[in-house]
Structures are given as C-alpha cells and as structure tokens.
Write a structure and sequence with these properties.
Helices cover 72% and strands 0% of the residues. It has four helices and no strands. The chain starts with a helix and ends in a 20-residue tail after the last helix.
C-alpha cells in the first residue's frame, strides 16, 4: 500500500467530514424554518440540501475508487485503523472518530428536521380537512386518520 495514497485518503475523509458539517447545518436550519413557517428559507435549505446530496454521492464514488486503489474495497470505516500504515495509525484513529461523530450529529439533525416536517404536514392535513370536509373525503382523507393520497405525499428524505 502506498503511504502517500493512504494520506490522501485521510485528507479525503476530513473533507467528507466538512461536507457532513455543512449538511448538518442545513438540516438544523431546515428544522428552524419549518418551526417558524418560513417557506422561503425552507425552500433555500432544500435546494442546498439537494446540492450537498449530489456532492455526497460524488464523494461516495470517489471513496470507492480510493479504497480500490488502496486495495481496501469492502473495508468499513471503523475497520480502517486495522489497515493503516504504522505511521498513520494515530491520525487514522482521530480522523475516523471525528468522522463518526460528525455523521452522528448529521443523523440527529436530519431526524429532527424530518420529524418537524412530518408534524407540520400532519397539521396542514388536519387544517385542510377541517376547512372543507367534503373535499377531504374526495381527496381520500379518512375521518379517524387524515392522510393525503399517495400521489400528494412527499418524501423529504434526501
């Protein structure tokens, strides 16, 4: 294994962490905008989220290529320390731990934003049904559990 390639992979992982920090911030802002009913801000967050999702897909492809180049395809991030050259073990440990923390923060922010969006969508459904129960019935709402028909539901997960 070429140690300069491994060093380059660690730099890539740090860059990936920076992207995770960015998308975490977007998720946090998205939740704030949903709570304050700021649709313009929410729309901007969702555009940024889409762009960052594309960046993450690109990173995933680059990661696969780098792992293959290093002969580590199929090696999970938490196992990387087992394959690190001796001179990069400490740096690898710190980088992996940091990236895992950043991912956990992202997942938490994502869950909060998703749950907040879902709660607000349920409120909108209830308001629509209360405003015009006949229209609600025509659109597929059920009395006990208002739901939008599948053609009107949106999955906000990226």
């Amino acid at each position: 294994m070429n140690t300069s390639d491994f060093r380059e992979y660690l730099a890539f992982l740090r860059d990936l962490g920076a992207t995770l920090d960015e998308i975490t911030e977007v998720e946090q802002k998205k939740a704030e905008f949903v709570q304050t009913d700021d649709l313009e801000g929410l729309n901007e967050c969702m555009k940024r989220e889409q762009a960052l999702s594309l960046t993450m897909r690109s990173c995933d492809q680059k990661r696969d290529a780098m792992l293959q180049m290093l002969g580590l395809q199929g090696v999970h991030l938490r196992e990387l320390l087992n394959y690190a050259p001796a001179e990069y073990r400490e740096e690898t440990k710190k980088t992996v731990e940091q990236l895992c923390r950043q991912y956990a923060l992202y997942r938490g922010a994502f869950e909060v934003a998703r749950d907040t969006l879902e709660c607000n969508l349920h409120q909108v459904e209830k308001i629509l049904q209360a405003a015009d129960p006949d229209t609600g019935a025509q659109m597929g709402y059920q009395e006990a559990s208002p739901q939008l028909p599948s053609r009107m539901r949106t999955d906000f997960r990226a």
